[in-house]
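Write out this protein's structure.
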Amino acid sequence: MAINIGIVVFDDIIPFHLSVPCAVFEKALQPDGSPVFQLTVCATTPGVLRTNAGFSIVAERGLDALDSADIVVVPSWSKPDELPPEVLLAALRKAHQRGATVVGLCLGAFVLAAAGLLNGRRATTHWRWMDDFLSRYPQVDIDRDVLYIDEEDIVTSAGTAASIDCCLHLVRKHCGADSANSVARLLVVLPHRQGGQAQYVEQPVYNTKGGDNFLSSLSWATENLQQPLTLDMLADHACMSRRSFTRRFQQTSGTSFNAWLLNQRLAVAQRFLEKTDQPIELVAQHSGFPSAIALRRHFKAQFNTSPARYRSEFRGRV
């Protein structure tokens, strides 16, 4: 049975913000080719809505569409200082109380906060509007340094590019790594990035201009995660000094080498847990952790669950 997603649209929406969840979720397919997600676009008042790009769109459904949604997505909001209508806030609260996952992409976090859904919760939003968000909603535990935050029933993301990562994360959560990577390939975007990365980086991730040796070193590392990799090893592989490699790495990824390496190994561990019945000790070995204990510790810190439970819950979803 398809997972129902309700996407909320509004006047002055940026078309790209709407296109992100639509493009990502509609490309996720079951093995038989049927869609994993059933998308419904809805608005406070059905009908014609203007975009900020000089054309209009039509929302055929009202907020009653959220009554049957398993996931509700607010893809952004028109202005941070514009309070959403109470009818929308009430619909979001109702969906959340019913058990739906509520997602606020980019400035959509402002809408979730206005509904009271983020009180006492960790959340994020676009880095440019962080201070404004905090002044309006001081009761929210805002995180400035992540791409997205998944609190199970509440999910928020940073700016537009991070919204893609967040939606790919949800595809992976419900369908697995292979499906998420397949969607990423179809969209010609980077494979899924873990949420705990910096929002703002000075260069696009994996910008190839003048960096072939550097990129080759990263590729080599991802193919040899079972080895005890160090920053010096990658710098040597790239024929770069440690200082130059570190500077380029931080500019490119927005995170430290150790954090990046941990995320790569956790991603490999997830794939083994999703696709094999190998014991945790072997999963740890294949993904580069020194022991099953180390894997469990890092897995718990990153995903708030154990490897065994992750495997069980994933297979219960697919």
